[in-house]
Amino acid sequence: MLKIGATGWIEKEKPRPGPLDAIVAPLALAPCTSDIHTVYAGALGDRHNLILGHEAVGRVVEVGSEVRDFKPGDRVVVPAITPEWRTQDIQQGIPHQHSESLLSGWKFSNTKDGVFAEFFHVNDADMNLAALPDRITLEQACMMPDMMTTGFHGAELADVQFGAVVAVIGIGPVGLMAVAASALRGAGRIFAVGSRPKCVELALGYGATDIINYKNGDIVRQVVDLNRGKGVDHVIVAGGPENVLSQAVSLARPGGSIGNINYFGEGAMLEIPRLDWGCGMAHKSIRGGLCPGGRGRMERMIALVAHGRVDPGKLITHKFQGLEGVEAGLALMKDKPAEVIKPLALI
Questions:
Q1: What is the pLDDT, as a whole number, of residue 267?
Q2: Which of 41, 91, 154, 344 pairs as cysteine with 236 (C-beta 3.0–4.6 A)?
């Protein structure tokens, strides 16, 4: 990111590790819609000459003197969220994504250079890297740092229960992973809201039982009509404009729960419909969270893939070769033609 609205290639010095850190060379990289929000909407404010990217699988090339569990040559999954784990906030139970301040665990392409480079720096390597087993492909692995863990967090935030009725609003890559997570948690019926044919196909493959096309009218009315006139138990917001949170509140039944993993990159306020929220007393819970990171979380994602519980590699629709492939992938994420879900650059 050269500045708001402009990207390009620049030269920077190779980063150096601190005692607890690692330097990693990428093996696979994936551009994200968040990168588009950052550059073209200025969602994080102006940034100059900031390396983008937060979805990477790589090979360790250098470690600090205090790193115990990783060495040069190791293949690793690099979480999008790399918190500082040695803080008082962590000890007091504050979510690790905010262990120093709000969203502070999100460092790559936010407060430090990201992963779209020949080499990138990872803080606290023993706590933030996860070893990549040979049985998992680079395609599968590169969907874990953000897409998979974020989608699964949506099901966690919404507290999806066995046999429950769930609505997932937005079935881009994160929403598709939310569908898969809801199915794994035992949801009985899953409404997936989206319209792109490839996404619809994958949503059904990941466990959706019903597809709601927002082009066919109000999604709340469509779901309620199919659900015997009732709202759903859990809503996962995985995409959409500012009014999508309002739709989620209207969709949830009294006592229902809403998990938001949507990145609201524009606007100053988000609205909640007063009457559908029971004038504030409908016992509808709303929880929003940044995707979990760190080694332990990535090892859980790896276990799910290694043992065949889910295949996030199916999200990838376009592949490019070399670091320059990141530029082509970023352009696809900006323009979003109908056939795109996730691009990948194999380095």
A1: 82
A2: 154
